[in-house]
DNA sequence: CGTTTTTGACCAGCGC
DNA sequence: GCGCTGGTCAAAAACG
Protein backbone atom coordinates (compact mmCIF):
# COMPACT_ATOMS: atom_id res chain seq x y z
CA UNK A 1 0.00 0.00 0.00
CA UNK A 2 1.19 3.38 -0.81
CA UNK A 3 0.61 5.58 2.07
CA UNK A 4 2.23 8.62 0.87
CA UNK A 5 0.02 9.36 -1.90
CA UNK A 6 -3.45 10.03 -1.13
CA UNK A 7 -3.68 9.92 -4.80
CA UNK A 8 -2.84 6.36 -5.27
CA UNK A 9 -4.74 4.65 -7.95
CA UNK A 10 -7.45 3.54 -5.63
CA UNK A 11 -8.27 6.97 -4.64
CA UNK A 12 -8.26 8.33 -8.06
CA UNK A 13 -11.75 9.52 -8.43
CA UNK A 14 -13.05 10.94 -11.56
CA UNK A 15 -9.97 11.98 -13.26
CA UNK A 16 -8.47 8.65 -13.96
CA UNK A 17 -11.66 7.15 -15.05
CA UNK A 18 -12.39 9.89 -17.33
CA UNK A 19 -9.04 9.79 -18.86
CA UNK A 20 -9.23 6.12 -19.30
CA UNK A 21 -12.48 5.71 -20.94
CA UNK A 22 -13.35 8.80 -22.72
CA UNK A 23 -14.58 7.68 -26.01
CA UNK A 24 -15.44 4.13 -25.41
CA UNK A 25 -18.89 3.86 -26.66
CA UNK A 26 -19.61 0.23 -26.87
CA UNK A 27 -17.27 -1.39 -24.55
CA UNK A 28 -17.79 -2.05 -20.96
CA UNK A 29 -15.52 -0.04 -18.74
CA UNK A 30 -12.66 -1.93 -17.29
CA UNK A 31 -13.17 -0.32 -14.00
CA UNK A 32 -16.62 -1.52 -13.47
CA UNK A 33 -15.52 -3.44 -10.48
CA UNK A 34 -14.51 -0.28 -8.88
CA UNK A 35 -17.10 0.80 -6.37
CA UNK A 36 -17.54 4.00 -8.18
CA UNK A 37 -18.55 2.12 -11.21
CA UNK A 38 -21.00 -0.19 -9.63
CA UNK A 39 -23.86 1.97 -10.41
CA UNK A 40 -26.66 -0.02 -11.74
CA UNK A 41 -27.20 -3.16 -13.68
CA UNK A 42 -28.31 -1.06 -16.57
CA UNK A 43 -24.80 -0.23 -17.39
CA UNK A 44 -24.83 -2.54 -20.31
CA UNK A 45 -23.46 -2.42 -23.76
CA UNK A 46 -25.92 0.17 -24.79
CA UNK A 47 -24.95 2.46 -22.07
CA UNK A 48 -22.28 5.00 -22.40
CA UNK A 49 -19.97 4.75 -19.44
CA UNK A 50 -18.76 8.23 -20.02
CA UNK A 51 -22.18 9.57 -19.61
CA UNK A 52 -22.85 7.53 -16.57
CA UNK A 53 -20.02 8.56 -14.44
CA UNK A 54 -20.19 12.16 -15.22
CA UNK A 55 -23.51 12.61 -13.71
CA UNK A 56 -23.57 9.89 -11.18
CA UNK A 57 -20.30 9.60 -9.47
CA UNK A 58 -21.32 9.35 -5.86
CA UNK A 59 -17.81 9.85 -4.72
CA UNK A 60 -17.48 13.22 -6.08
CA UNK A 61 -17.33 14.87 -2.76
CA UNK A 62 -16.05 18.02 -4.27
CA UNK A 63 -19.36 18.97 -5.58
CA UNK A 64 -22.84 18.31 -4.46
CA UNK A 65 -24.71 15.61 -6.25
CA UNK A 66 -26.47 16.93 -9.25
CA UNK A 67 -30.18 17.41 -9.21
CA UNK A 68 -32.13 14.41 -10.21
CA UNK A 69 -33.76 15.92 -13.17
CA UNK A 70 -30.92 17.87 -14.47
CA UNK A 71 -31.29 17.34 -18.12
CA UNK A 72 -28.00 18.91 -18.82
CA UNK A 73 -26.24 15.95 -17.43
CA UNK A 74 -27.85 13.73 -19.90
CA UNK A 75 -27.32 16.06 -22.70
CA UNK A 76 -25.28 13.76 -24.81
CA UNK A 77 -27.63 13.78 -27.63
CA UNK A 78 -29.72 16.19 -29.45
CA UNK A 79 -31.96 18.48 -27.57
CA UNK A 80 -35.19 16.85 -28.31
CA UNK A 81 -33.90 13.42 -27.63
CA UNK A 82 -32.44 14.62 -24.49
CA UNK A 83 -35.72 15.81 -23.26
CA UNK A 84 -37.28 12.60 -24.18
CA UNK A 85 -34.75 10.65 -22.32
CA UNK A 86 -35.03 12.82 -19.33
CA UNK A 87 -38.73 12.68 -19.32
CA UNK A 88 -38.90 8.99 -19.64
CA UNK A 89 -36.19 8.51 -17.15
CA UNK A 90 -37.94 10.71 -14.70
CA UNK A 91 -41.18 8.97 -15.29
CA UNK A 92 -39.56 5.68 -14.82
CA UNK A 93 -37.97 6.80 -11.67
CA UNK A 94 -41.07 8.26 -10.25
CA UNK A 95 -43.08 5.23 -11.04
CA UNK A 96 -40.85 2.48 -9.98
CA UNK A 97 -37.70 3.45 -8.30
CA UNK A 98 -38.29 4.13 -4.74
CA UNK A 99 -35.59 1.86 -3.61
CA UNK A 100 -32.87 2.84 -1.24
CA UNK A 101 -30.47 3.15 -4.07
CA UNK A 102 -29.64 6.71 -4.84
CA UNK A 103 -32.05 7.64 -7.55
CA UNK A 104 -29.45 9.51 -9.49
CA UNK A 105 -27.58 6.34 -10.09
CA UNK A 106 -30.61 4.45 -11.01
CA UNK A 107 -32.48 6.22 -13.61
CA UNK A 108 -29.85 8.28 -15.17
CA UNK A 109 -28.36 5.15 -16.45
CA UNK A 110 -31.59 3.95 -17.76
CA UNK A 111 -31.94 6.36 -20.56
CA UNK A 112 -34.63 4.61 -22.48
CA UNK A 113 -33.51 1.08 -22.28
CA UNK A 114 -34.56 0.33 -18.81
CA UNK A 115 -38.03 1.37 -19.55
CA UNK A 116 -38.58 -1.94 -21.12
CA UNK A 117 -38.20 -3.80 -17.91
CA UNK A 118 -39.70 -1.25 -15.66
CA UNK A 119 -42.65 -0.65 -17.83
CA UNK A 120 -43.14 -4.29 -18.34
CA UNK A 121 -43.37 -4.81 -14.69
CA UNK A 122 -45.61 -1.88 -14.55
CA UNK A 123 -47.84 -3.46 -17.10
CA UNK A 124 -47.83 -6.58 -15.13
CA UNK A 125 -48.96 -4.75 -12.12
CA UNK A 126 -51.66 -3.11 -14.12
CA UNK A 127 -52.95 -6.43 -15.21
CA UNK A 128 -53.67 -7.11 -11.63
CA UNK A 129 -55.76 -4.06 -11.53
CA UNK A 130 -59.15 -4.30 -12.94
CA UNK A 131 -58.74 -2.50 -16.18
CA UNK A 132 -60.69 -3.38 -19.25
CA UNK A 133 -58.82 -5.61 -21.67
CA UNK A 134 -59.29 -3.21 -24.52
CA UNK A 135 -57.81 -0.23 -22.86
CA UNK A 136 -55.14 -2.44 -21.49
CA UNK A 137 -54.24 -3.67 -24.93
CA UNK A 138 -54.30 -0.21 -26.30
CA UNK A 139 -52.11 0.93 -23.57
CA UNK A 140 -49.72 -1.89 -24.09
CA UNK A 141 -49.57 -1.15 -27.77
CA UNK A 142 -48.86 2.43 -27.13
CA UNK A 143 -46.12 1.57 -24.79
CA UNK A 144 -44.73 -0.87 -27.19
CA UNK A 145 -44.71 1.73 -29.88
CA UNK A 146 -43.06 4.19 -27.59
CA UNK A 147 -40.46 1.68 -26.64
CA UNK A 148 -39.80 0.76 -30.20
CA UNK A 149 -39.42 4.35 -31.13
CA UNK A 150 -37.12 4.81 -28.23
CA UNK A 151 -35.10 1.84 -29.26
CA UNK A 152 -34.81 3.16 -32.75
CA UNK A 153 -33.71 6.45 -31.49
CA UNK A 154 -31.10 4.88 -29.29
CA UNK A 155 -29.83 2.92 -32.20
CA UNK A 156 -29.47 6.03 -34.24
CA UNK A 157 -27.68 7.76 -31.48
CA UNK A 158 -25.45 4.82 -31.02
CA UNK A 159 -24.65 4.86 -34.68
CA UNK A 160 -23.96 8.53 -34.49
CA UNK A 161 -21.58 8.02 -31.66
CA UNK A 162 -19.89 5.23 -33.50
CA UNK A 163 -19.37 7.48 -36.41
CA UNK A 164 -17.89 10.03 -34.13
CA UNK A 165 -15.58 7.49 -32.67
CA UNK A 166 -14.58 6.37 -36.09
CA UNK A 167 -13.83 9.90 -37.07
CA UNK A 168 -11.70 10.39 -34.02
CA UNK A 169 -9.88 7.18 -34.75
CA UNK A 170 -9.15 8.24 -38.25
CA UNK A 171 -7.85 11.54 -37.05
CA UNK A 172 -5.74 9.88 -34.49
CA UNK A 173 -4.21 7.54 -36.99
CA UNK A 174 -3.37 10.39 -39.26
CA UNK A 175 -1.81 12.26 -36.42
CA UNK A 176 0.14 9.30 -35.29
CA UNK A 177 1.43 8.71 -38.75
CA UNK A 178 2.50 12.27 -39.00
CA UNK A 179 4.09 12.15 -35.62
CA UNK A 180 5.99 9.00 -36.39
CA UNK A 181 7.27 10.49 -39.56
CA UNK A 182 8.50 13.49 -37.71
CA UNK A 183 10.13 11.36 -35.11
CA UNK A 184 11.81 9.29 -37.71
CA UNK A 185 13.22 12.33 -39.36
CA UNK A 186 14.33 13.68 -36.07
CA UNK A 187 15.96 10.44 -35.13
CA UNK A 188 17.89 10.38 -38.34
CA UNK A 189 19.06 13.88 -37.76
CA UNK A 190 20.21 13.07 -34.28
CA UNK A 191 22.04 10.03 -35.48
CA UNK A 192 23.82 12.11 -38.02
CA UNK A 193 24.80 14.59 -35.41
CA UNK A 194 26.04 11.90 -33.18
CA UNK A 195 28.23 10.47 -35.86
CA UNK A 196 29.56 13.85 -36.74
CA UNK A 197 30.07 14.87 -33.20
CA UNK A 198 32.05 11.83 -32.27
CA UNK A 199 29.29 10.07 -30.53
CA UNK A 200 31.16 6.85 -30.77
CA UNK A 201 32.81 7.65 -27.53
CA UNK A 202 29.51 7.82 -25.78
CA UNK A 203 28.41 4.60 -27.18
CA UNK A 204 31.64 3.00 -26.14
CA UNK A 205 31.18 4.33 -22.70
CA UNK A 206 27.68 3.12 -22.63
CA UNK A 207 28.59 -0.32 -23.71
CA UNK A 208 31.36 -0.69 -21.24
CA UNK A 209 29.50 1.01 -18.51
CA UNK A 210 27.97 -2.11 -17.13
CA UNK A 211 24.27 -1.96 -16.87
CA UNK A 212 22.78 -0.46 -19.91
CA UNK A 213 19.29 0.66 -19.81
CA UNK A 214 17.34 1.95 -22.70
CA UNK A 215 16.44 5.41 -21.77
CA UNK A 216 13.45 5.76 -23.87
CA UNK A 217 11.72 4.37 -26.80
CA UNK A 218 11.28 7.66 -28.38
CA UNK A 219 12.76 10.89 -27.60
CA UNK A 220 10.54 13.77 -28.23
CA UNK A 221 13.50 15.72 -29.07
CA UNK A 222 14.20 18.72 -27.05
CA UNK A 223 15.53 18.93 -23.63
CA UNK A 224 13.42 19.44 -20.67
CA UNK A 225 15.03 18.96 -17.43
CA UNK A 226 14.63 15.73 -15.79
CA UNK A 227 17.63 13.57 -15.47
CA UNK A 228 20.60 15.67 -15.97
CA UNK A 229 19.13 18.42 -14.00
CA UNK A 230 18.15 16.11 -11.40
CA UNK A 231 21.61 15.15 -10.44
CA UNK A 232 22.99 18.58 -10.35
CA UNK A 233 20.11 20.13 -8.58
CA UNK A 234 18.92 17.44 -6.32
CA UNK A 235 22.34 16.46 -5.28
CA UNK A 236 22.71 19.92 -4.06
CA UNK A 237 22.39 18.95 -0.51
CA UNK A 238 25.53 17.08 0.25
CA UNK A 239 29.05 18.04 -0.41
CA UNK A 240 30.04 14.54 -1.22
CA UNK A 241 27.46 14.46 -3.86
CA UNK A 242 28.47 17.73 -5.14
CA UNK A 243 31.92 16.53 -5.84
CA UNK A 244 30.34 13.98 -8.03
CA UNK A 245 28.02 16.30 -9.70
CA UNK A 246 30.29 17.53 -12.42
CA UNK A 247 31.06 14.03 -13.43
CA UNK A 248 27.47 13.22 -13.56
CA UNK A 249 26.78 16.26 -15.56
CA UNK A 250 29.44 15.46 -18.04
CA UNK A 251 28.49 11.88 -18.20
CA UNK A 252 24.90 12.60 -18.77
CA UNK A 253 25.73 15.10 -21.38
CA UNK A 254 27.90 12.72 -23.15
CA UNK A 255 25.42 9.98 -23.14
CA UNK A 256 23.43 10.31 -26.19
CA UNK A 257 19.76 10.40 -26.25
CA UNK A 258 18.10 9.73 -29.40
CA UNK A 259 15.81 6.96 -30.10
CA UNK A 260 16.59 3.93 -28.07
CA UNK A 261 19.50 5.58 -26.57
CA UNK A 262 21.29 3.67 -23.95
CA UNK A 263 22.03 5.31 -20.77
CA UNK A 264 24.32 4.38 -18.08
CA UNK A 265 26.74 6.57 -16.41
CA UNK A 266 28.73 6.28 -13.31
CA UNK A 267 27.98 9.85 -12.66
CA UNK A 268 24.35 9.22 -12.64
CA UNK A 269 24.78 6.20 -10.51
CA UNK A 270 26.68 8.22 -8.09
CA UNK A 271 24.02 10.78 -8.10
CA UNK A 272 21.28 8.38 -7.69
CA UNK A 273 22.87 6.74 -4.78
CA UNK A 274 22.03 9.82 -2.93
CA UNK A 275 18.49 8.84 -3.02
CA UNK A 276 18.06 6.61 -0.11
CA UNK A 277 16.43 4.07 -2.30
CA UNK A 278 19.38 2.80 -4.22
CA UNK A 279 18.24 3.80 -7.53
CA UNK A 280 21.20 3.26 -9.64
CA UNK A 281 20.88 1.53 -12.87
CA UNK A 282 17.24 0.99 -12.49
CA UNK A 283 16.93 4.38 -13.90
CA UNK A 284 14.69 3.76 -16.77
CA UNK A 285 14.00 0.17 -17.21
CA UNK A 286 11.05 0.69 -19.32
CA UNK A 287 12.15 3.64 -21.21
CA UNK A 288 9.32 5.96 -21.09
CA UNK A 289 8.98 8.77 -23.43
CA UNK A 290 8.98 11.20 -20.64
CA UNK A 291 12.37 10.22 -19.67
CA UNK A 292 15.36 12.27 -20.13
CA UNK A 293 14.68 14.73 -22.71
CA UNK A 294 18.02 15.95 -21.87
CA UNK A 295 18.97 14.86 -25.18
CA UNK A 296 20.46 17.63 -27.02
CA UNK A 297 23.24 18.55 -24.78
CA UNK A 298 25.84 16.40 -26.35
CA UNK A 299 25.62 17.78 -29.74
CA UNK A 300 28.82 19.78 -30.07
CA UNK A 301 27.32 22.22 -32.46
CA UNK A 302 24.74 23.13 -29.94
CA UNK A 303 26.96 23.40 -26.96
CA UNK A 304 26.37 27.07 -26.47
CA UNK A 305 22.67 26.73 -26.66
CA UNK A 306 22.80 23.80 -24.38
CA UNK A 307 24.78 25.64 -21.83
CA UNK A 308 22.24 28.37 -21.96
CA UNK A 309 19.54 25.84 -21.51
CA UNK A 310 21.34 24.34 -18.61
CA UNK A 311 20.93 27.56 -16.79
CA UNK A 312 17.21 27.30 -16.94
CA UNK A 313 16.48 23.69 -17.16
CA UNK A 314 13.99 23.46 -14.39
CA UNK A 315 10.84 23.84 -16.33
CA UNK A 316 7.76 23.38 -14.27
CA UNK A 317 4.14 22.77 -14.78
CA UNK A 318 1.82 24.17 -12.23
CA UNK A 319 -1.80 23.32 -11.79
CA UNK A 320 -4.14 25.32 -9.66
CA UNK A 321 -7.33 23.65 -8.68
CA UNK A 322 -9.79 23.82 -5.90
CA UNK A 323 -9.59 20.82 -3.72
CA UNK A 324 -10.15 19.89 -0.17
CA UNK A 325 -7.79 17.01 -0.52
CA UNK A 326 -4.16 17.43 0.44
CA UNK A 327 -3.18 16.69 -3.12
CA UNK A 328 -4.84 16.55 -6.45
CA UNK A 329 -5.16 13.14 -7.93
CA UNK A 330 -2.86 12.65 -10.81
CA UNK A 331 -2.47 8.93 -10.97
CA UNK A 332 1.09 8.79 -9.83
CA UNK A 333 2.48 7.61 -6.54
CA UNK A 334 4.35 10.14 -4.51
CA UNK A 335 6.47 10.09 -1.47
CA UNK A 336 6.81 13.13 0.64
CA UNK A 337 10.39 14.03 1.29
CA UNK A 338 10.17 17.43 2.75
CA UNK A 339 8.08 20.26 3.93
CA UNK A 340 8.93 23.87 4.23
CA UNK A 341 7.35 27.05 5.21
CA UNK A 342 7.57 29.25 2.22
CA UNK A 343 7.87 32.95 2.50
CA UNK A 344 4.66 34.83 2.14
CA UNK A 345 2.42 31.86 2.64
CA UNK A 346 1.28 30.55 5.99
CA UNK A 347 0.61 27.20 4.43
CA UNK A 348 3.56 24.89 4.29
CA UNK A 349 4.88 23.69 1.01
CA UNK A 350 5.23 19.97 0.70
CA UNK A 351 7.76 18.28 -1.52
CA UNK A 352 6.98 14.99 -3.15
CA UNK A 353 8.96 12.62 -5.26
CA UNK A 354 7.54 10.13 -7.69
CA UNK A 355 7.88 6.63 -6.37
CA UNK A 356 6.41 4.70 -9.20
CA UNK A 357 9.87 3.74 -10.29
CA UNK A 358 13.17 3.91 -8.55
CA UNK A 359 15.05 6.92 -9.62
CA UNK A 360 12.20 8.68 -11.26
CA UNK A 361 13.28 12.29 -11.25
CA UNK A 362 9.83 13.76 -11.19
CA UNK A 363 9.00 15.87 -8.21
CA UNK A 364 6.17 18.02 -7.26
CA UNK A 365 5.43 20.71 -4.79
CA UNK A 366 2.06 21.13 -3.24
CA UNK A 367 1.00 24.23 -1.48
CA UNK A 368 -2.25 25.86 -0.66
CA UNK A 369 -2.86 29.31 -1.89
CA UNK A 370 -2.43 31.91 0.78
CA UNK A 371 -5.35 33.98 -0.40
CA UNK A 372 -7.70 31.12 -0.88
CA UNK A 373 -6.87 27.99 0.98
CA UNK A 374 -9.26 25.95 -0.99
CA UNK A 375 -6.99 26.40 -3.93
CA UNK A 376 -4.29 23.85 -4.25
CA UNK A 377 -1.23 24.73 -6.18
CA UNK A 378 0.64 21.76 -7.52
CA UNK A 379 3.87 22.20 -9.37
CA UNK A 380 5.42 19.37 -11.32
CA UNK A 381 8.98 19.18 -12.35
CA UNK A 382 10.85 16.69 -14.44
CA UNK A 383 9.94 13.80 -16.64
CA UNK A 384 9.00 10.33 -15.64
CA UNK A 385 11.42 7.64 -16.63
CA UNK A 386 8.98 4.81 -16.40
CA UNK A 387 5.70 3.71 -17.84
CA UNK A 388 2.75 5.38 -16.34
CA UNK A 389 -0.71 4.19 -15.68
CA UNK A 390 -3.18 5.78 -17.99
CA UNK A 391 -4.48 7.83 -15.15
CA UNK A 392 -1.13 9.48 -14.82
CA UNK A 393 -0.39 9.89 -18.45
CA UNK A 394 -2.02 13.20 -18.89
CA UNK A 395 -0.28 14.89 -16.06
CA UNK A 396 3.02 13.36 -16.94
CA UNK A 397 2.68 14.42 -20.48
CA UNK A 398 1.95 17.81 -19.25
CA UNK A 399 5.21 18.08 -17.47
CA UNK A 400 7.06 16.71 -20.40
CA UNK A 401 5.37 18.72 -23.04
CA UNK A 402 5.23 21.91 -21.12
CA UNK A 403 8.81 21.68 -20.09
CA UNK A 404 9.78 20.93 -23.60
CA UNK A 405 7.79 23.82 -24.83
CA UNK A 406 9.38 26.24 -22.49
CA UNK A 407 12.89 24.97 -22.54
CA UNK A 408 13.19 24.40 -26.18
CA UNK A 409 12.51 28.01 -26.90
CA UNK A 410 9.97 26.89 -29.33
CA UNK A 411 7.19 29.28 -28.78
CA UNK A 412 6.71 31.31 -31.82
CA UNK A 413 4.25 34.12 -31.57
CA UNK A 414 1.85 32.36 -33.82
CA UNK A 415 2.10 29.30 -31.69
CA UNK A 416 1.51 31.27 -28.61
CA UNK A 417 -1.64 32.70 -29.90
CA UNK A 418 -2.81 29.46 -31.27
CA UNK A 419 -2.11 27.53 -28.16
CA UNK A 420 -3.46 30.04 -25.78
CA UNK A 421 -6.55 30.19 -27.81
CA UNK A 422 -6.81 26.49 -27.87
CA UNK A 423 -6.38 26.26 -24.19
CA UNK A 424 -8.72 29.00 -23.24
CA UNK A 425 -11.29 27.89 -25.69
CA UNK A 426 -11.06 24.52 -24.20
CA UNK A 427 -11.45 25.66 -20.68
CA UNK A 428 -13.85 28.47 -20.98
CA UNK A 429 -16.92 26.47 -21.76
CA UNK A 430 -16.69 24.57 -18.56
CA UNK A 431 -16.31 27.45 -16.23
CA UNK A 432 -14.57 30.68 -15.89
CA UNK A 433 -11.35 28.84 -15.41
CA UNK A 434 -8.29 30.60 -16.53
CA UNK A 435 -5.53 28.95 -18.37
CA UNK A 436 -2.29 30.67 -17.76
CA UNK A 437 0.90 29.70 -19.38
CA UNK A 438 3.54 31.60 -17.62
CA UNK A 439 7.22 31.42 -17.38
CA UNK A 440 8.99 33.26 -14.69
CA UNK A 441 12.67 33.10 -14.20
CA UNK A 442 14.58 31.20 -13.24
CA UNK A 443 12.18 28.36 -13.71
CA UNK A 444 9.82 28.62 -16.61
CA UNK A 445 6.45 27.45 -15.51
CA UNK A 446 3.28 26.56 -17.26
CA UNK A 447 0.40 27.29 -14.98
CA UNK A 448 -3.11 26.12 -15.45
CA UNK A 449 -5.60 27.91 -13.35
CA UNK A 450 -8.58 25.73 -12.92
CA UNK A 451 -10.07 27.55 -10.07
CA UNK A 452 -13.23 29.09 -11.26
CA UNK A 453 -12.71 32.51 -10.00
CA UNK A 454 -10.73 34.90 -12.10
CA UNK A 455 -9.71 36.70 -9.01
CA UNK A 456 -6.79 38.91 -9.82
CA UNK A 457 -5.35 38.27 -6.42
CA UNK A 458 -5.09 34.65 -7.19
CA UNK A 459 -3.73 35.13 -10.61
CA UNK A 460 -1.44 38.03 -10.40
CA UNK A 461 -0.37 39.30 -13.72
CA UNK A 462 3.02 40.45 -14.40
CA UNK A 463 3.07 44.15 -14.78
CA UNK A 464 4.52 44.05 -18.22
CA UNK A 465 1.92 41.95 -19.81
CA UNK A 466 0.51 43.04 -23.09
CA UNK A 467 -2.82 42.40 -24.58
CA UNK A 468 -2.69 40.66 -27.86
CA UNK A 469 -5.93 40.37 -29.75
CA UNK A 470 -6.63 37.08 -31.33
CA UNK A 471 -5.48 36.94 -34.83
CA UNK A 472 -4.61 34.34 -37.27
CA UNK A 473 -6.78 31.89 -35.49
CA UNK A 474 -8.43 29.39 -37.69
CA UNK A 475 -12.05 30.14 -38.20
CA UNK A 476 -13.21 27.01 -36.68
CA UNK A 477 -11.28 27.81 -33.56
CA UNK A 478 -12.81 31.11 -32.92
CA UNK A 479 -16.20 30.36 -34.29
CA UNK A 480 -17.10 27.32 -32.38
CA UNK A 481 -15.42 27.23 -29.05
CA UNK A 482 -18.09 25.03 -27.65
CA UNK A 483 -17.63 22.43 -30.24
CA UNK A 484 -13.93 22.57 -29.90
CA UNK A 485 -14.03 21.48 -26.37
CA UNK A 486 -15.07 17.92 -26.92
CA UNK A 487 -12.63 17.64 -29.73
CA UNK A 488 -9.74 18.62 -27.64
CA UNK A 489 -10.99 16.59 -24.85
CA UNK A 490 -11.68 13.54 -26.81
CA UNK A 491 -8.48 13.76 -28.69
CA UNK A 492 -6.48 14.17 -25.58
CA UNK A 493 -8.10 11.28 -23.94
CA UNK A 494 -7.95 9.17 -26.93
CA UNK A 495 -4.33 9.93 -27.35
CA UNK A 496 -3.80 9.07 -23.83
CA UNK A 497 -5.28 5.69 -24.16
CA UNK A 498 -3.10 5.13 -27.15
CA UNK A 499 -0.13 6.25 -25.21
CA UNK A 500 -0.76 3.87 -22.47
CA UNK A 501 -0.84 1.10 -24.95
CA UNK A 502 2.25 2.11 -26.78
CA UNK A 503 4.20 3.20 -23.80
CA UNK A 504 5.43 6.14 -25.59
CA UNK A 505 4.80 9.75 -25.57
CA UNK A 506 2.70 11.20 -28.21
CA UNK A 507 1.57 14.68 -28.75
CA UNK A 508 -1.27 15.69 -30.83
CA UNK A 509 -1.37 18.34 -33.36
CA UNK A 510 -4.05 20.80 -32.47
CA UNK A 511 -4.49 21.78 -36.03
CA UNK A 512 -6.20 18.51 -36.47
CA UNK A 513 -8.85 19.54 -34.12
CA UNK A 514 -9.58 22.58 -36.05
CA UNK A 515 -10.19 20.55 -39.12
CA UNK A 516 -13.20 18.82 -37.73
CA UNK A 517 -15.05 21.20 -35.61
CA UNK A 518 -18.20 19.20 -35.67
CA UNK A 519 -16.88 15.82 -34.94
CA UNK A 520 -18.53 15.57 -31.63
CA UNK A 521 -22.05 16.56 -30.97
CA UNK A 522 -21.96 20.00 -29.43
CA UNK A 523 -24.25 19.05 -26.61
CA UNK A 524 -21.53 16.86 -25.32
CA UNK A 525 -19.82 20.03 -24.39
CA UNK A 526 -22.38 20.79 -21.76
CA UNK A 527 -22.01 17.48 -20.12
CA UNK A 528 -18.28 17.62 -20.20
CA UNK A 529 -18.33 21.12 -18.92
CA UNK A 530 -20.53 20.18 -16.06
CA UNK A 531 -18.27 17.36 -15.17
CA UNK A 532 -15.23 19.51 -15.35
CA UNK A 533 -16.68 22.19 -13.24
CA UNK A 534 -17.81 19.64 -10.75
CA UNK A 535 -14.54 18.15 -9.75
CA UNK A 536 -11.22 19.84 -9.29
CA UNK A 537 -9.34 16.64 -9.71
CA UNK A 538 -11.02 16.19 -12.94
CA UNK A 539 -10.16 19.64 -14.03
CA UNK A 540 -6.59 19.02 -13.18
CA UNK A 541 -6.53 15.92 -15.26
CA UNK A 542 -8.20 17.73 -18.07
CA UNK A 543 -5.74 20.51 -17.82
CA UNK A 544 -2.98 18.03 -18.07
CA UNK A 545 -4.43 16.51 -21.15
CA UNK A 546 -4.94 19.82 -22.79
CA UNK A 547 -1.56 21.03 -21.89
CA UNK A 548 -0.03 17.97 -23.32
CA UNK A 549 -1.72 18.73 -26.55
CA UNK A 550 -0.42 22.19 -26.47
CA UNK A 551 3.01 20.95 -25.75
CA UNK A 552 2.66 18.67 -28.67
CA UNK A 553 1.70 21.52 -30.82
CA UNK A 554 4.73 23.31 -29.69
CA UNK A 555 6.92 20.47 -30.46
CA UNK A 556 5.39 20.18 -33.79
CA UNK A 557 6.46 23.69 -34.52
CA UNK A 558 9.80 23.50 -32.92
CA UNK A 559 11.57 23.85 -36.16
CA UNK A 560 10.56 27.39 -36.70
CA UNK A 561 11.20 28.73 -33.33
CA UNK A 562 11.74 32.13 -32.22
CA UNK A 563 13.49 32.56 -29.00
CA UNK A 564 11.83 32.57 -25.67
CA UNK A 565 14.49 33.61 -23.38
CA UNK A 566 12.03 36.17 -22.37
CA UNK A 567 9.31 34.69 -20.32
CA UNK A 568 5.95 34.30 -21.76
CA UNK A 569 2.61 34.57 -20.19
CA UNK A 570 -0.53 33.77 -21.96
CA UNK A 571 -3.76 34.18 -20.22
CA UNK A 572 -7.34 34.75 -20.89
CA UNK A 573 -9.32 36.04 -18.05
CA UNK A 574 -12.20 37.45 -19.87
CA UNK A 575 -13.16 34.79 -22.26
CA UNK A 576 -13.66 37.30 -24.98
CA UNK A 577 -10.86 36.07 -27.04
CA UNK A 578 -8.10 38.33 -25.90
CA UNK A 579 -4.85 36.85 -24.99
CA UNK A 580 -2.46 38.42 -22.65
CA UNK A 581 1.13 38.02 -23.45
CA UNK A 582 4.04 39.17 -21.47
CA UNK A 583 7.71 39.07 -21.19
CA UNK A 584 8.73 39.17 -17.64
CA UNK A 585 12.14 39.07 -16.26
CA UNK A 586 11.44 38.47 -12.69
CA UNK A 587 14.50 37.51 -10.87
CA UNK A 588 12.93 35.13 -8.49
CA UNK A 589 10.15 32.72 -8.55
C1' DC B 1 9.38 -5.36 9.42
C1' DG B 2 9.11 -2.53 5.50
C1' DT B 3 7.51 1.75 3.99
C1' DT B 4 6.18 6.46 4.59
C1' DT B 5 6.04 10.77 7.10
C1' DT B 6 8.06 14.12 10.02
C1' DT B 7 11.39 17.34 10.97
C1' DG B 8 15.77 19.43 11.99
C1' DA B 9 19.88 20.23 9.56
C1' DC B 10 22.59 21.12 5.58
C1' DC B 11 23.69 23.40 1.31
C1' DA B 12 23.39 26.59 -2.77
C1' DG B 13 21.94 30.71 -4.69
C1' DC B 14 20.95 35.31 -4.23
C1' DG B 15 20.77 40.00 -2.45
C1' DC B 16 22.62 43.33 0.55
C1' DG C 1 30.75 37.87 4.45
C1' DC C 2 26.23 37.50 6.23
C1' DG C 3 21.50 36.54 6.22
C1' DC C 4 17.53 34.84 3.90
C1' DT C 5 15.14 31.52 1.25
C1' DG C 6 14.29 27.37 -1.32
C1' DG C 7 15.29 22.71 -1.85
C1' DT C 8 16.96 18.39 -0.21
C1' DC C 9 18.73 14.89 2.93
C1' DA C 10 18.39 11.52 6.40
C1' DA C 11 17.53 9.92 11.11
C1' DA C 12 13.75 9.13 13.90
C1' DA C 13 8.99 8.37 14.42
C1' DA C 14 4.77 6.63 12.78
C1' DC C 15 2.06 3.51 10.35
C1' DG C 16 0.01 -0.78 8.45
From TrEMBL:
Residues 323-389 form the WRKY domain. Keywords: DNA-binding, Nucleus, Transcription, Transcription regulation. Pfam families: WRKY. GO terms for cellular component: nucleus. Residues 78-105, 118-139, 190-211, 224-307, 503-522, 557-589 are annotated as: Disordered. SUPFAM superfamilies: WRKY DNA-binding domain (SSF118290). The keyword DNA damage does not apply. Residues 267-280 have a biased composition (Basic and acidic residues). It is found in: Nucleus. One of its GO terms (molecular function) is DNA-binding transcription factor activity. Residues 80-105, 232-245 have a biased composition (Low complexity). Gene3D superfamilies: WRKY domain. This is Probable WRKY transcription factor 31. It comes from Vigna radiata var. radiata (Mung bean). The lineage of its organism: Eukaryota, Viridiplantae, Streptophyta, Embryophyta, Tracheophyta.
Amino acid sequence: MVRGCGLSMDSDPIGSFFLHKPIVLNSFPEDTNHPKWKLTPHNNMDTIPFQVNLSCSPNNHHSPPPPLHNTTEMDFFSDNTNHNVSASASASASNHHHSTTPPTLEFKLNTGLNLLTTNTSSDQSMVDDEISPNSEDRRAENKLAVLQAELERMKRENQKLRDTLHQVNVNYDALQMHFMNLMQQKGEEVEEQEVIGGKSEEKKQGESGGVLVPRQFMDLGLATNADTDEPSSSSGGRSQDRSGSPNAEVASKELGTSMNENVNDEGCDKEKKEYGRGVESEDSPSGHAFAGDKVPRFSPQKSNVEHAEATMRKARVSVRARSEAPMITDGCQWRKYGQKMAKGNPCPRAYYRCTMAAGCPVRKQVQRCAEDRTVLNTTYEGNHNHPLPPAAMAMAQTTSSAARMLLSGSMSSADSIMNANLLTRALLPCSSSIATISASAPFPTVTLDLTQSPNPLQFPRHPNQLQIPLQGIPQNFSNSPASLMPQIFGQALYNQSKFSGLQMSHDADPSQFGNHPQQVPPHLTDTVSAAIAADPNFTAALAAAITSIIGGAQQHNNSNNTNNNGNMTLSNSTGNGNITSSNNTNGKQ
